[in-house]
Amino acid sequence: MSQKIICDASVGSGAGQWYGTLVIKNIRYEDGSSVTIQSFLGVKFLAPKTTADITVNAQFTPWQEVSSEISTEELDQNTIDVTAKVFVQQAHTFVASDTITWGINADLTVNPDTYTNSFELYADALPGGTVNIEVAAAPDSALADTEQVVYLEKGTQATPLTATPGETESYQVAAGTYNVEAAELANSDETVVATALVSPSQVEVQVGAESAVSVTYGVVQKYSALDVSIGSLSSPIDKEPLHVKVVDNSTATVIDEFLSSNNRTTNLRRLPASGSVDVSAQITLNNVKYSAVKTVQLSGSLIQVSVGQSDIKTENIDTTGFVDLPVQVQTDLTGSSGTISVRLTSANKDLIYTQQLSVGSASSKFDVKVAPGDYTVKATGFIQDSTVYAIQAPAALTVNSDGSTVLQLATQKGADLNVNGFTDFLTFGGLSDLVDLEGTDFVAANAFSLFKYAGNDGAGDAGTYLADDPATTKTVQLADTVADKLGHSVLPVMISYTVNLSLGDTLAQLNNKEGLAHSFGNLILSMNLAQSTSKQTVPIGYVVNPDFLGECQKGPSGQALSPDYSMAVREPLADALQYRKVDADIPDDVTDTLKGYVVAVNWLIRTVCPRATFGWQANIWGVGSSTWIYTKDASADGPAQMAKKTADYIKSLEVYSGKYVPDFLAIDRYEADDFTQRAYTNGYCYGPYEWGRFFDFCGALSLELQVPVMPWQIPASRIPARTESVVDLEVEHWGSGGTYIFGDANIGSDYLNIHPKILEIKPAPLVTHPTVEDLFASAQPFDLSDPAYFDFPLRGIFAVLLGGGATTGIVTTIGKTAKWTQEKTSAYMEDPVSW
Questions:
Q1: Rounded distance, CA 147 to CA 135, Å?
Q2: CA angle, residues 640, 644, 645, in degrees to nearest 5
Q3: I want to staple 454 with a disulfide (CB 3.0 to 4.6 A). Which of 352, 462, 494, 533 is the partner?
Q4: How far apart are CA 493 and CA 220, in angstroms?
Q5: What is the arithmetic mean of pLDDT over 787-794?
């Protein structure tokens, strides 16, 4: 029998009524010998009941990125049982100083021994038992080759297990009590569907024991299915979505309706088994109606319905009573050659008007008369002399029947996209794990930047002044090597913490004078090493203090920290300058306040390494939560509103004003591949709709601040097609970010092209969709055929940095799909998006 693993556990400093941390370190066997893990550390402990996600921050020596998978089970009204896996990228032997910090939104100060004495640790294992899933024979021959999915649910985590009808499958499962659910059994086109009945509804898995779950079948339903395909249509509707309706001819009832773009197939499932329907597709654009109608006999099977250019009939609609719509553009630009694209869509979406307008013309009008009524307005901006100009337009417009309506537009100046250290076109870079110092992956990707965390612990090394920083020197040398091979500059970017608010415990971190001094000093060391090592004109780039702005905006107790919040700044900065022998006088605007700290960081970089390029980092949850990304009511909490709140706080700290203005702003969401449990059980499971809102947030924040932005640590993993092999979601690192950014014809416009294992995932409740399939089905019109990056510059985006420590990017040591990403970035560089 193996020895018991023990640790030293305590409640972290600064614990209060609403938030605290549990800290474990000195992980060892009972006899004092070292513990080595190959893949993960299994952890079980008790915690006070919390409605928020438990966070994990691990500091290992040598430093490496870790990820986690956490599930909870309620024991009573006050206590939860936590089961976790802390994953490492490579085998790790624990030393006494290794620390794992668990952030918990609850009060740990009451009966703390209950929690600190509860820790159980396991090397590459968790205590568990066997679950045998016995499935009855398929109730219909059409279902014989279909896999039955059974979900074991514990807290917010749902683990899908599969078994073939008529067989029994056995699975090793961590100990605990699980709710059991069974998905319907359906064939691929859902023309035959059987209700699945599971027993028992709850199963207790005990260590070393076996548990049984049985699945039987009830009613079998028969349906029809339609695949409605819109082909390649000609101008002017080649880029327009058509309004498609499916109407029951016997009752005139609309069975389904949706928008479909060109070269898109929409799958309609579980339609009546018999009867006749009309499938119509139409659009009225600039007073011309384009339409097609096809009659289909339903037959309890899958039927293909195609609409091509030869099916389209055109008709000029009656414009009696329509009026001229003048447009006035207010701008301070002179001699502009910019063009504005304006689009009006009627409230019932039956009428669409488009118009191209020259910014140089102060007054013009639509080429055709416009029907009186209510419209939504969309106006697209332009780029002139590398500067983004957005168009301010009313969200809605009522066109009056007396012709008195004038559409008022105005240009709004945004960011200059030319950023020190970067190019005049959109570029991609990614994280390096410094495994391959020849840069093979970055050369294959034709990358223009690469990033790595500075120092030993990757978070500022607040405990000491570092004697050396190999992470910086190796990253700079790697960038030089890749640059030599590619024949163009490759910017090394270091992620530098001068205070680590990613760790939580915000106030304690801000008031750790000694830690601030050490981290200031370690940033100076990194800059000095970069300047002495790099062979490139811009020797180094920095993303400073991830999570700092978001944590301060969110506040330790839900209230934003004031810019005048008192903290020591000048003394620790002076200590760092003296230790590193930097002869510079600290300016008077570096005050002992939160705002003064921001000035100190900006001044320090501009003083010690004036040729560096740098930016701060913001994220989507500085407003208090990231759940707004899923909201459908954009008027209440859309990307623009969330960006405005974030920008207002950044402005209050004067991050991008004064004498030492940074070059850019990095923006991220949670760094994890969407279809791994560390992402979707933590509420980060994005479809096209959510990714669109994220990049809209980037664009709106850039516009509010007039600062160029760089999405950073973006997962580049792709969605697997249903024909591909998908074995282990946690090992293979599938996700949606790469597919959204670069497009994938294998997924195209049909979400049922996605592998069933992906569609069956049950994300956390705050995602607001029961399954990934429902998440994608709600993103209409669904189409991932083409890249999304074409309009990135119009959103103020000048570069994108992909991947993270345990997230797919460019390096093949992280994520099965990194080769695909390399191919996509390399192909992109054959025709990059410039300004």
A1: 10
A2: 125
A3: 494
A4: 58
A5: 97
3-state secondary structure 104-153: ECCCCCCCHHHHHCCCEEEECCCCEEEEEEEECCCCCHHHCCCCEEEEEE
The angle at the Cα of 76, spanning 72 to 77, to the nearest 5 degrees, equals: 100
Angle in degrees, CA 650, 656, 659, rounded to 5: 140
pLDDT interval class at 285 (50, 70, 90): very high
Q: What pLDDT does residue 51 have?
A: 66
Query: Cα separations (Å) of 596 from 68, 592, 674, 731?
Result: 35, 6, 37, 44
Please give the pLDDT value at position 704: 97
Q: How far apart are CA 483 and CA 464, in angstroms?
A: 33
pLDDT at 635: 59
CB 436 within 8 A of CB 477: no
CA distances from 536 to 431, 443, 800 (A): 19, 17, 20
Write out 439-455 in H/E/C secondary structure: CHHHHHHCCCEEEEECC
Residues in contact with 143: Cβ distance below 8 Å, sequence separation at least 6, in sequence order: 165, 185, 186, 187, 192, 194
Kindly report the backbone phi and psi dihedral angles of residue 256, in degrees, each rounded to the nearest multiple of 5, phi listed first. Answer: -160, 155
Rounded CA-CA distance 594/695 in Å is: 29
Strand order in the sheet with 210-222: 168-174, 128-135, 210-222, 192-199, 185-186
Q: What angle do CA 552, 556, 561 make, to 5 degrees?
A: 40
Q: How far is 597 from 594, CA to CA, in rounded Å?
A: 5
List phi, psi (to 5°) of 751. -65, -15
* Burial grade of 803 (CB within 10 A; 0-12, 13-18, 19 or more): buried
Three-state SS at 577 = helix
Residues 6+ apart with CB under 8 A from 288: 314, 315, 316, 317
Alpha helices in 455-567 (DSSP H): 470-486, 506-510, 513-533, 548-554
**Cα–chain-centroid distance for residue 571?**
39
Residue 178 three-state SS: strand
Residue with tokens 């049985």: 214
State pLDDT tens for residues 353-390: 999 998 877 678 999 999 999 999 999 999 999 999 99
CA 477 – CA 470 distance, rounded (Å): 10
Length of the chain: 835
Let me know if 228 is exposed, middle or buried by CB neighbors in 10 A (0-12, 13-18, 19+): buried
User: Which of 663, 699, 689 minimizes the C-alpha distance to 794?
Assistant: 699
Longest dimension (CA), the chain: 92
- In the predicted model, is pLDDT for residue 224 greater than 80? yes
Q: Return the higher-pLDDT residue of 154 and 456.
A: 456
Take residue 811 and report the two structure tokens written for it. Answer: 């390096």
Rounded to an integer, the average pLDDT of 654-666 is 96
Q: How many angstroms separate the CA atoms of 285 and 685, rounded? A: 36
Contact 674, 680 (CB under 8 A): yes
Q: What residues pair up with 102 in beta bridges, in sequence order? A: 22, 56
Sign of the torsion formed by the C-alpha atoms of 677, 683, 688 and 693: negative
User: 639-668 burial by CB neighbour count: b if 16+ within 10 A, else e?
Assistant: bbbbbbbbbebbebbbbbeeebebbbbbbb
**pLDDT at residue 634 greater than cutoff 60:** no
pLDDT tens-digit series, residues 5-15: 999 999 987 67
CA distance 244 to 257: 5
Q: How confident is the model at residue 156 (pLDDT cuts 50, 70, 90)?
A: low
